[in-house]
Amino acid sequence: MENKRPVRCNENENVALYLWTKRQEMADRGEISDSFHLGKKAKALRRYVPQKNSTAYALLIILYRGIVKGATFMKKQELRDDTEASELSLKSIRLVSHSVSSTI
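== Crossover junction endonuclease MUS81 ==
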C-alpha cells in the first residue's frame, strides 16, 4: 500500500510520488538507510523542497519530464537547454557558473 505524503504544490504530486517510490525501493534493497538518525543529537528533519521558480525547481521538473519520456540520462548541455526553454525558473541557468581559482 502506498504511503501518501502531503505535497505543497498539486502540480508536483507525480514528481513527489515518483521520488518517494524510488526512495522506498532503494531502502528495501538496502542501498540507503531507512533511518534518518544522524547521530546522538538529531535535528528536526525537514524535507528539501526547492523554491518554486528557482533553478533547482526547474532542473528537478525537467529531469522528471525526461524520466516520464523514457530518457535514461541527459547530457549537461541538453539539461541546460531544456531548462532554459521551459521558463520554469525566473533566473537564467546560464548565469550560474562555478569557477575554481587556484593560487600558485
